[in-house]
Amino acid sequence: ALLHIFLCLLLPARQELALSSFSPEEPSTIIQFTHTSNAQMYSLLKRTAAKCSHISHVYSIGRSTEGRDLLVIEFSDNPGRHELLEPEIKLVGNMHGNEVLGRQLLIYLAQYLCSEYVLGNERIQTIVNTTRIHLLASMNPDGYEDTCSMWTNGRTNAQNLDLNRNFPDLTSVYYRNRRSRHYLIVMCPRVLQVAPETYAVMKWVRSLPFVQSASLHGGELVVSYPFDFSRHPQEERIFSPTPDEQIFKQLARTYADSHATMSNNDTERCGASFYRTRGIINGALWYSFAGGMSDFNYLHTNCFEITVELGCDKFPSEVELYPEWKRNKESLLSFLESVHRGVKGVVRDKDGNGIKGATVSVRGIRKDVTTGKDGDFWRLLNPGTHIISATAKGYSRVTKRVHIPHSMSKAGRVDYILEKGGDIERQEKPWWWNYFAQSGVTPPNWLLRHI
Ligand SMILES: *[C@@H]1O[C@H](CO)[C@@H](O)[C@H](O)[C@H]1NC(C)=O
Ligand SMILES: *[C@@H]1O[C@H](CO)[C@@H](O)[C@H](O)[C@H]1NC(C)=O
Ligand SMILES: [Zn+2]
Predict the structure, then answer these.
(1) Which residue stretches of the chain have pLDDT < 50?
(2) 84 and 196 part of one domain
(3) Is residue 107 part of a domain?
(4) CA-CA distance, 439 to 173, in Å (whole number)?
(5) Distance CA 144, CA 8 (A)
(6) 128 C-alpha vs ligand 1 centroid, how far in Å?
(7) Distance (Å, rounded) from C-alpha 97 to C-alpha 179?
(8) Domain span at residue 225?
(9) With contact defined as beta carbons under 8 Å apart, do 295 and 213 qualify?
(10) Which of 123, 187, 298, 412 could potentially form a cystine with 343 if both were Cys, beta carbons 3.0 to 4.6 Å apart?
(11) Residues flanking ion ligand 3, Cβ below 5 Å
């Protein structure tokens, strides 16, 4: 702990030195592999976006408890807007304020994407031209500040809430009602105090059609994937797969296998041993917790999120930052590329208008995805033959048989045209219906109306 405090205090002076030799006018591949204070992070991300304004832009998704911006830097060939069929992906760092490596890696990644694009790196250009990338380097800037000021350990936000326990627990609802395929947020602030950081992220994940996400943490060296909340929470280490177990395993493998040491069987681990599964694990099988961000993403949106534990040291010393970037760089790029797996398409009516909110289902997988504003959808799938159908309220159902070969490097295109009427399916009542329908119960005022 002493070392960290020392680093945090030492940092500003060193960083200034580094920045004075940095010319904002001309593109540069030079990345300063130092720790970055909140103020430095904001200025660095803004300058990166300004330097690459043709492919980048920054925006805030809200403010932390103490009023700091939750600043996102975006990369895309048309920054600032969603393009039909272009998948959206996000990477989130520093959710736990004292786990800082992910935050630094995302700051480096932003600079790397910008300068390599400008320098003509074909791989980076292809990624940016075909994908909309959002990097939230710090989800918990207040906690980071705390970590550096020695008063608390900085894992939580300024209200002392662990943000990765602070999301609505939809997983319990899922276990209780296995027939439901949609999970609305109905929650009670009297039970759950929603942090502004959590609320901002909830709004964010609902506002964009994210397909894939990674939350970067520290303290272990492993990728874990949902569910994080156990189907038998009273017992320890219960394998609790989602209906998309195969896809999540593949996503986790993508990161772990491209990492320099994560999937090694001889790696010195931080306490637990993951060599039997080569560096990946189902979250609840490792340890169970409710209210996590990844379970929420999966059950409430179309987004598949994994949790990457980047290493034993939550606050690595500065000399470790460049080696860590080298260990993780290929993983980060492969993870961005892996969003182009499975199938994507547009669901339209007979006049060619995209249908928003149509449901796309895969036979044998009890998790639907829904279409975005213009009717576009993405469905991550592993190679093989799949029966995929699309339907929408007031429209018929159309089913297609799709084969995804092993060698695919782009998502297969599957479009649907739905007829009006047809056999309109009985709409299943949502799980909370009975609650509202009970006589004598006044409608609760704790619905999150504004999200
Ligand atoms: C990416 O898009 C830009 C702008 O349209 C284009 O000049 C560049 O050649 C593209 N690069 C690749 C590798 O597709
Ligand atoms: C680790 O991997 C090597 C080579 O793949 C294998 O020979 C060895 O038995 C493995 N060790 C353990 C403990 O699994
Ligand atoms: Zn963490």
Answers:
(1) 1-28, 188-190, 429-451
(2) yes
(3) yes
(4) 22
(5) 10
(6) 9
(7) 37
(8) 2-337
(9) no
(10) 412
(11) 96, 99, 217
* CA-122 nearest atom, ligand 1: 13
For the domain that residue 410 is a member of, what is the CATH number? 2.60.40.1120
* From 309, 320, 330, 419, active-site residue: 309
| 106 C-alpha to ligand 3 centroid (Å) | 15
Partnered with residue 91 across adjacent β-strands are: 135, 214
User: Which residue's alpha carbon is at the smallest distance from atom 3 of ligand 2?
Assistant: 265
Q: What are phi and psi of 444, to 5 degrees?
A: -65, 150
Which domain CATH number covers 229?
A: 3.40.630.10
Residue 407 C-alpha from the chain's centroid: 26
* Residues 195 and 97 reside in one and the same domain: yes
User: What local confidence, expressed as pLDDT, does residue 421 receive?
Assistant: 83
Do 15 and 106 reside in the same domain of the chain?
yes
pLDDT digits (tens, 9 = 90+) for 126-161: 999 999 999 999 999 999 998 877 555 799 999 999
Mind listing the pLDDT tens digit for each residue in 56-97? 999 999 999 999 999 999 999 999 999 999 999 999 999 999
Tokens representing residue 321 in the block: 């930052």
Residue 235 a catalytic site member: no
Nearest partner of 336 among 120, 76, 83, 103, judged by Cα = 76
